Each structure stands twice: as structure tokens, then as C-alpha cells.
Amino acid sequence: MKERPVYRDRSIVNIQQMLRESCELYADEIQSVDCQVKGKPKERTFRELYKDVIALYTAFADLGLFDGRNVGLITDKRTYEWDIAWLAKIWGGSGAIVPIAAEWPPEKIKEYAEKMDVSVLIYADKLSKKIEPIRASLENIERFIKMGTDGKDETDETIDALVEKGKALIRNGDERYQNVKIDENALAAIYSTSGTTGPSRGAMLTQGNFAFDIERTLENVQMNGMEKKRRIFSFLSAKSNHVYETVLGFLMEIYKGASVVYSNGNIPREMKETHPTELLGTPAAQEHVVRQIRERNGKKR
What we know:
The protein is of the alpha/beta class. It contains ten helices and twelve strands. It has helices at residues 15-25, 46-62, 80-92, 106-115, 128-135, 159-171, 207-219, 243-256, 267-274, 283-300, and strands at residues 30-34, 42-45, 70-74, 97-100, 118-124, 143-147, 157-158, 187-192, 202-206, 231-234, 259-262, 278-280. The strands form three sheets. It has a five-stranded mixed beta sheet. It has a five-stranded parallel beta sheet with strand order 4-3-5-6-7, with helices on both faces. Helix 1 (15-25) packs parallel to helix 8. The protein is globular.
């Protein structure tokens, strides 16, 4: 029987180490292409990602979010703000990041947040109508932070404002981000299971778990030096709360210096503008993309 080849890469023990090293190795390479901004898609480099993450970490630290507090993260689609919020919380090494499914009804969101002991909730502005009915009853939530803004309700802090606050703190000499020690075996994230065979539960994961998944997956995949030319098209919508998307469509790209496209829903146009090399999704989601492209081409003919 022919032996399966094993492909080796650099060793990592936690996600903070991975992010720091990748942003040094690939500093000026494109890390993301954002189709969710107005006008032309916005490109960001690994250097910009690093600066935004350490700035947001610094602002989070200033708010006291790293004394064992669990932070909930809920969005209707994957965004750059979702990614830097996840990384900033992970950078701090204390308490867990808790992605929450946006498709859940308000009462289930409330129940899950309470079970997972969430004390800070970061939510997408488009989900305000889902959060407002349960806001008052979320007694354990000490702080609400908004991703994006709808221009109406500015009572909550926003990720953008906190990034700017963190950058100002760093300019004034705040160096807390340089001194964070990580226990790769400590709880880092809680992901809900799909509930296929029973009630949805929270799977407890460490930074070591994520590092192991990345290394072992890449031992079985030969990249052939194409890392910096790889571009993943992220269109899984609210599935950002799944480990599948987090590892294969987010962390692995940072590890290898590849880039990701944040879709805003107009998949055929965005693919034409951004030239992705890979689609990450379930078979049903990929069939949906193919259908959109065929329909668009059919209209042209």
C-alpha cells in the first residue's frame, strides 16, 4: 500500500503566535478583500489586520473584557469586524469567545447566551431588531457592542470606534498587547453544535485545539507554493458560528498568507471583481452559487 505523503509547515501552539508570525511573514500581502463597503471592494493587508487586532484588543482590555468574561459574537454574515473581534478576544487569552447563530429566534439567542455565561454581546447592526426585544431580559449582559452602524441607534459602542480608541491608546504608550501570555490548554471558544442528533450544545475549544486542527489539516494538503495567490470566497452567511468556516475559511488563510473575500450577497459580480481561487461552502451552498452564475449568464444571452 502506497504511503500517504505528509506535508510539513511551521509549528504553532496557539492562535496569538500564529497571527503574530503570519503578520510578520506576509505583512504587505493582501489579507482580505471586502465587498461589503460602498463602492470598489476594499483590500487590506496583513499589516493592517495586525494593527486593527492589537488596537481592538487594547480597547477591550481597557473595558475589562479579559478577566474571565465570555464574549458573545453574532452576525448575519461574516465580516471583517467579526474576524478582528474574534482575534482580539482570542489575543487576550482570558475568557471565551462565543459565536452565536444569527438564524436563531430571539428567545433561543437569550437562552444560549445565558447558558454560556455571556457577559458582553457583540452584534451586527442588522440584527438590532432581533436583539432589542430581549435586551432588557439579558440581565447578565453588562455591555453591548455593535458591528457596523445603521445610523439610528448609537447608544452602544461600535467596533470601529473601539479600534480607533485602541490605536490612540497605543500611540500614547499602551503596550499591554505585547505582554499577554497564552495558556493553549485554557478555554478559548465555545461553538454550538448543529443539533442534528439532539439539542444544540456548546463545544469547548482551546487555542491548542485550533492550532492542532490547522497543522494536521495542512499535513494532508500540498499547497505547491501557491499560498499568497490563494483567495477564498466566503459566502456562508451566518455560518460564521461554525468551526468549519472558522478553521478552513479564516484561520488557515491567515496561517498560510492567503486572502479571503467578504461577500455582500451579489456573488457573480463579486467573484468577477475579486478573482477568488476557491469557494468554501457546503454542497447546497455551492449549488446555489452555480445557479446564480448560470441565471446571470442566461439573462445576458
